[in-house]
Amino acid sequence: MEKPTPEQLKLHDEAVARGQMNYLDPETGYLVFTSLMLTRAGNCCGSGCRHCPWPLEEQRRAGRIGA
């Protein structure tokens, strides 16, 4: 997974500040989960989410490929 761009980080941080669970990436048109949403999920899903809040070891345990 690629690191978020500065613009993606800005959009993410603004969404989190508003308490939003996701934001729309204007470049791809995809709905992207914020770390707020991912934390509320309770554990890492292993999908390599852009704003995954879980430590690398937790991501590995969840089966994330390349972690």
Describe the fold and architecture.
- The chain contains three helices and two strands, in the order αββαα.
- It is an alpha+beta fold and about 70 residues long.
- It has a two-stranded antiparallel sheet.
- It has one domain (about 5-60).
- The model has no long low-confidence stretch (mean pLDDT about 95).
Number of domains: 1
Silhouette: globular
Please report which band the strand proportion falls in: under 5%, 5-15%, 15-25%, 25-35%, 35-45% or over 45%: 5-15%
Weakly predicted, low-confidence segments: none
Q: How many β strands by DSSP?
A: 2
Cα end-to-end separation: 9 Å
Question: What is the string of SSEs from the N terminus onward?
Answer: HEEHH
How many helices? The count is 3
Q: For the CA atoms, what is the radius of gyration?
A: 12 Å
- Largest beta-sheet characterization: 2 strands, antiparallel
pLDDT averaged over residues: 94
Helix content: 25-40%
Structural class: alpha+beta
Widest sheet, order of strands: 1-2
What is this structure, in a nutshell?
This protein is α+β, with helices and mostly antiparallel strands and 67 residues long. Helix content is 36%, strand content 9%.
Give the topology.
Layout (H helix, E strand, L loop, with lengths): L5 H12 L4 E3 L6 E3 L1 H6 L15 H6 L6
Antiparallel strand pairs: 1-2
Question: Key features?
Answer:
alpha+beta, 3 helices, 67 residues, two-stranded antiparallel sheet
